[in-house]
Amino acid sequence: MTKFLLIYTGGVRDAQPTPEGSAAIIKDWTDWFDSLGENLVDAGNPTTPMAKTITSDGAVSDGAPGEMVTGYSIIQADSLDAATEATKSCPQLKAGGKVIVYETFNIM
To answer: Would the pTM of this model clear 0.85, i.e. be above it?
Structure first.
């Protein structure tokens, strides 16, 4: 099986969700992670807007160079198409966000 990096962007972020709203969001993610079973390698975490960009010449600037990443997960699947199919039910999409699926490979 190959590992795939899921990068989350966008989505609605309620600054102060109600306790019920928070519980529903957590349940959606937990249910989705459970549905992946053994194919979930790392559930990941959300990210904050705090970021730095470092270029090849060593220059450092505040922020990301493009759309802000809001989180990540790592899954495994037999193919990019299979990983994409598994990602179609990700709660990030329900929240109006996007998921970018990157195939990874072992180098070490």
So the answer is: yes
The span from the CA of 60 to the CA of 54, in Å, is 5
31 with 90: CB under 8 angstroms? no
Q: Is 95 exposed, middle or buried (0-12, 13-18, 19+ CB in 10 A)?
A: middle
- Tens digits of per-residue pLDDT, 37-90? 999 999 999 999 999 999 999 999 999 988 999 999 999 999 999 999 999 999
Q: Taking the C-alpha atoms of 98, 10, 30 and 105 in order, what is their torsion angle to the nearest 10 degrees?
A: 50
Identify the structural domains of the chain with CATH numbers, from first to last: 2-103 (3.30.70.1060)
What burial letters (b/e) apply to 38-50, b meaning 16+ CB within 10 Å? ebbeeebeeeeee
